[in-house]
Every structure is written in structure tokens, then in C-alpha cells.
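Reviewers of the previous submission asked for a worked example of the structure-prediction workflow described in the proposal, so we include one complete record here. The input consisted solely of the amino acid sequence. No template or homolog information was supplied to the procedure at any stage.
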Amino acid sequence: MVWNYRQGLSIAIITIAAVACATVTARQSPHSGVSPQGIIGTWAGQSVCVGNRPACKNEEVVYRFVAVPGKVDTVTQYADKILNGERVPMGKLDFNYDAAKGTLSCEFTIRQTHGIWRYQISGDALDGDLTLLPNRDIGRTVKAHRVEESKVPKAPPLMDYEG
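From that input alone, the workflow returned the following C-alpha cells.
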């Protein structure tokens, strides 16, 4: 086989492209390995009030994330606060998962509160906040970590979150 300039240039371009792809892959977000299935489970931590909101109380929280059948980019969150050593249901919300950003988000309206919950997942850590609408003020911040269900108070039945 005779080596020529065009073949050498083609091989060089292919090599550069392969190195560029490998570099992009290596630099992907550390969240790219998290999938909705990787979020499923129990998380515990603190939900802290932000700003001047006299009715708001800091809370020890436990979140259960479960898969939504037929929706690969959606998980349901069952949220509890801990009072007197027991889990008290706060509600359930469906969150959308953004694989590129490694985030969960949910816009909701409950009674007079309209807001957006956003969580950033990184391994076994969850950091997030509640943005209150329409002013876009931060109402809460959340820091939680994955836990074994046996390490937190017993979960209430799922029917307690309805309504």
C-alpha cells in the first residue's frame, strides 16, 4: 500500500475527532451518571427557611422518590417532616428529571403557594431550593443525603399523601 498525503490527512482528522470526543465525554457533567432510577429511594436532611417569612419553620425532612410507571423522566416525591420522632406527610409531587443537568424540578400550586422546587443530585447528595413565584424569591434551601429506610422513622402509608 502506498501512503499519500490525503490518507495521512484523513487519519489525522479522524484521530483529532476521536480525541475531541473522548475529551468531551471525560468532561461531561458529574451528574450525567445519575438517572431517575439512581434517584429512587429515601433521602433525609434539612429544609431551611430563607428570608423574612414568620410562618416558615426549619424542618428535618425525609423524601421518598419512587418511579412513575411509563414515564422514564419523572419521579414522584413523597415528602415528610419529622415531628416528635415521627414522619408526618407534607405531600407528594411529580418531578421532571433533566439528565443533562442532573436536576429534578417541579412547578406546583398548593393553596396560595406557587413555586418551583429544584434539586441538584450529585452521587448521594441532594441540594436544592424552593423558588416562590411570581417574584422568584428563594423561600427554602434543602440539603439531604441518601439513607437506608431503616435509619429514619417509619414511613406513613402512601394513601396519607392524597388530598
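Confidence is low (pLDDT under 50) at residues 5-33. We consider this example representative of the routine output the project will generate in years two and three.
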